[in-house]
Automatic annotation (TrEMBL):
InterPro entries on file: CHIT_BIND_RR_consensus, Insect_cuticle, Insect_Cuticle_Struc_Prot
Keywords, sorted A to Z: Cuticle
Gene Ontology MF terms in the entry: structural constituent of cuticle
Highest taxon in the source lineage: Eukaryota
GO cellular component assignments: extracellular matrix; extracellular space
Protein name as catalogued: Cuticle protein 19
Pfam families associated with the record: Chitin_bind_4
């Protein structure tokens, strides 16, 4: 009896999954959700989050081996002065001023 080494065998597992989750915390105002699915070299998904100014950000994304990563960002709603809950100085600064940015790059 001895050790027999297997050579030339590569194991390939086809990548396929789907997940989703959501958070809705009324104490902190943290509201967000995400779903994603992958089938081989194709990944697509979406995530949403409630911004401190009362707007909702929705990001839809898609990636494959041909086109790389692409995303569409939508902001829904109008900013609420005072932020969520209307508290000055609360989440988001409270004065109706806010900012957001997205740095999205496409990799090939």
């Amino acid at each position: 009896g001895g050790f027999k080494e297997e050579s030339g065998l590569d194991y390939y597992s086809y990548p396929k999954y789907k997940f989703e989750y959501g958070v809705k915390d009324i104490h902190t105002g943290d509201h967000k959700s995400q779903w994603e699915m992958r089938d081989g070299d194709v990944v697509k998904g979406e995530y949403t989050l409630d911004e401190a100014d009362g707007t909702k950000r929705v990001v839809e994304y898609y990636a494959d081996s041909k086109n790389g990563f692409e995303a569409k960002v939508k902001n829904i709603g109008h900013a609420i002065e005072g932020g969520i809950g209307g508290q000055q100085g609360g989440i988001g600064g409270g004065y109706g001023h806010g900012y957001s940015y997205s740095k999205l790059k496409k990799y090939n």
